[in-house]
Design brief:
The chain is α/β, with parallel strands linked by helices. The protein has eleven helices and nine strands. Strands 1, 2, 3, 4, 5, 6, 7, 8 and 9 form a nine-stranded mixed sheet that branches.
Length: 336
Amino acid sequence: MTRVAPRLVAIVVTFNRLDQLQITLPTLLDQDVDHIVVVDNASTDSTPDWLATQGDARVHVVTLPTNTGGAGGFEAGMAYARDHLSPDWVVLMDDDARPQPGALATFRSETPTLESDFPNLGIVVAAVFYPNGTLCEMNRPSRNPFWNLGLFARTLLRGTRSGFHLTDSQFAPDAPAIQIDVASFVGYFVKASAWEKADLPEGGLFIYGDDVLYSLRLRRAGFAMAFVPKVRFTHDCGTMGDGFVYRPLWKIYYHCRNGVDIARQAAGPLIFPAALVYYTLIWWRRGRHCKGTERRLYYKMMRMGLRDGLLGRRGRYDEAHQMVSNANITTTTRED
């Protein structure tokens, strides 16, 4: 009996980054994909005009009335694919991220083996690299140290992300697929049965943490998550910079606000207070890489994020954006 290839839909979220989208969309059209959903997050540049000229029937454009951030964009894109395209799998990516040649065909060919090797497979994660071929740190997958005593001990001893993140050697193209718990929304494949049971990502998070929280939710729902290093993506993003400090600094607010819920979901209710203290210490240490006005603003964003995270607030927080804008700190990083 001939096996039918899974129906695959790619979802790309974009905002005011037409130069990157003009690379990503043609790259996807050259790949083995059934449909491509481009979510335009209320772009104010020429993105809407350019998307209107796309004539390939596989391209579907979802235009949002306001900028809901990456989190809102991925939720909207997955909802459209679910309601209109009936995919077996979707694959998520930013507008500056794209599959390397043959990546989606490799995913399709590996799927039967993966479903055999990983019972109740719900998520497949690609290896992600910068254009120069080095590993993209912000997209390095991990295990949840709170679900594994050995990982937990190693994380405490090392005091760094290396205690629970994958090692460089595990990214070799001939390395075996392995079970993980957390990954980012770049080269992130989700099976239909997973969102049918666990629903869609939480769009109200705006940016940061939506991928981590969705990963944890799917894992808690019983789905396996496989990291497959032979499926490879490129992410043409800026590096995190010194000390993993996000720019513009209003991003720190969302990182800490949503990080409160990450600590809660990763650690569970009993360990949550200690986990939050641990995360808060990490965030505080990163602030030392800032100087003067920038440092004071960093810690203000951090305090506001912790406050609103504990209060369970969601959505875009315009006051944080305005405070950073009023501080007139020079930055070259765009607003997502």
